[in-house]
Structures are given as C-alpha cells and as structure tokens.
Amino acid sequence: MPLVSRHLLGPGPTNPYPEATAGLAAPLLGHLDPGFLRVMDETCAMLREVWQTDNARTLPLSATGSAGMEAAFVNTVGEGDVVVVAVNGLFGERMCEVARRCGAEVVRVEHEWGQPVDVERVAAAHPAPTVVAIVHAETSTGVRSDVAALGRLKGEALLLVDAVTSIGGIELRADEWGVDIGYAGTQKCLGVPPGLAPFTISDRAFARRVETPRSWYLDLGLLGGYVGGTTGGARTYHHTAPTAMVASLHGGLRRILAEGLDAVWARHERAGRRLQEGLQELGLELFAAEGHRLPELTTVRVPDGVDAAAVRGELLTRYGIEIGAGAGRYADTVWRIGLMGPNADDDSVALVLAALRDVLRR
Ligand SMILES: *Cc1c(COP(=O)(O)O)cnc(C)c1O
User: Fold this and answer.
1) pLDDT of 118-138, one tens digit each?
2) Domain that holds residue 180
3) How many Å apart are CA 238 and CA 223, to the nearest integer?
4) Beta-carbon neighbour count of residue 2 at 10 Å?
5) Are 185 and 130 contained in the same domain?
6) Residue to substitute in 90, 91, 299 for testing ligand 1 pocket (most ligand atoms within 8 angstroms of CB)
C-alpha cells in the first residue's frame, strides 16, 4: 500500500490531533481490563465537558455518527409518535428517514438549503410532538442553527440534536440549551479518526425511552450495564468495545481540554473567518447565509465555467489536499472546505487558499 499523507480539509474526516493518533498506537487492552475501564470512565467524564452536560448517560457509542442518529431515534421514538424534524440540508433529511423507520409520524419543516432553521416555525409545527429534532451544524450546507432558541420553545417535547460537526468546534451547551438527546462523531472537530459516536441523554429523556427498542446493539438500557456510571459498578459484557478507538478519543479529548474549550472554539472561529475572507478576496462567492456560517465548514460556490470535480482532483494530486464536493444537488456547484480539529489554524487556511488560487489560475 502506498504511504500517502493528506491534508484533510473536507467535511470529515479531518487529520487527527497527534494525541489521538498516539492513542491508537498504545498497547491494546481488553474491554473488561480495569485499566481500560478507567480509560472509558475518563473518556465519559471528558465527553460531559465537551457536551457541557451533567448527564450520567454520556458515552461513546461503538460506531460512527450515523449510529448516534439511529440510537437517538430508536431509543426515544415508538410506533405512532409524532416527531417534528427541521430540515435544512442532507442530515435533516436523513433524520426524517430514520424517524420514519422507527414508526414515527414525521412532521417535516422544510427550509431552503443554505438557510438556518426557523425555530419558531419548527416549534409551531405540531401542538404536542414526542420529539423535536434539529441539526446544530449542517455539514451539507455550512450553516449553524440556533439550538438554544429551540430549547426555549420546545415545551414538553424532547429536544434531539445532531452535534456531529459542532462538538469540539463551536459553542455547544447541552444542559443550558435544554438538549435532551445529543449525538456526535469523532472525525470532525474532535480531531479523532472516525469510529465512535459520542452520545448523551438526559434523565428526563431516558425515563421516557422506548422500553424495548428495535435495535439490540444500540439499546441504551443494555449499554448502561457495560459503560457504567448508572449501575453502581458492575460491568457486564454487552459487545466488545473498540478499545483502541476509545483510547484515541481519550487522547483527543485530553488535548482539547488542555487547550481549553473556549480557546478551541475561538481557534475554529478565527480560522473560519480568515478562510471566508480569503475566498471572497479570490472573487469567490460563499453559499451559506451570511451571519449563520459555520467556521469549521465553509461552502463556496463553484465559479461559472469551472469543472468542480477537476479542481478537487488537482488539489488532491498536486497538493495532497482533500476538499469536499457539494452535497446532494449541489455536487457540481459547491465545494465544502473544512477546518476542523488541528486543521483549524492559519497554516491550513494559507495552504488551501494558495493551492486554490493556483489551481483556478491554470
Ligand atoms: C458526518 C455527519 C453525520 C454522519 O456521521 P458519520 O460519521 O458519517 O456516520 C451526521 N450528521 C452530521 C451533521 C454530519 O456532519
């Protein structure tokens, strides 16, 4: 296999923090080894910090962000329950499909792609939903939505939040904002390879969960017996925890908390703003609505007459830079540039701007 290294400046995965890479190479432990259980406990404690929550049930699920989405719905939505979903991009769309498969009556609240969620319209969409779902950072469009505002309007409904691209990148305060169920991924701003889904659920939501969810693997009631924190010590085997991945997440989280959550958010903010200014100086037009742009994921319109895929190919072969195509029907008209985790820095901004300028000139 050729050994290549890439600047991963797309919608994820990003290049990992060195501490996350080191975690992968540490001596492997068994999933019931006391040493590993300590790593798991510390990981859950650090996850509470990055989620900004006190929820006892905060843990890394053993699969990618999409499994977090599945777990969120399958544990809280039963046959005939009403689920209101804010749809302003690909991941909102996917939530509708996952909820539908759980037997939900799905109320979609449509938005134009590139626009933030209109939380008042979402809150007014149904008088008494079981769950209201929103994507905090829509990676498909580069837009941030106001989760805190929806939290104030949610009423009796459970607030379910996709924080895959926001966690470890932009301000996220699960408890303060009234998030009942949240899921995330490791390969975006947490700067850890793909493979785990940080998950959190409030006591209120856990008490209202589906008793026997249709997924055995993602049944939070069963998982609690292994991950601990809720059963007072005894750890029973449920599935083999991916110990190397958990060690990697542990390394990434330690790095983030050592830098400080506020400092990490500020670093992403600064890098994203510089990139967006630089792209506009190159004469390019940004896609996401102004005032709602994510710093960690920038969407930019492909200029008329330019072959979007050819430019991405040149960036990869000449510079070793991966950027993303647009999502869905924007595949040929939008590029997505990520500055996540360790790549949220001046060097990455300078590199991608210089490379893009060069490739566009050819
Ligand atoms: C990447 C992403 C997902 C899916 O995560 P996977 O790790 O690809 O399964 C879900 N939601 C959002 C907002 C994402 O960016």
Assistant:
1) 999 999 999 999 999 999 999
2) 18-258
3) 7
4) 3
5) yes
6) 91
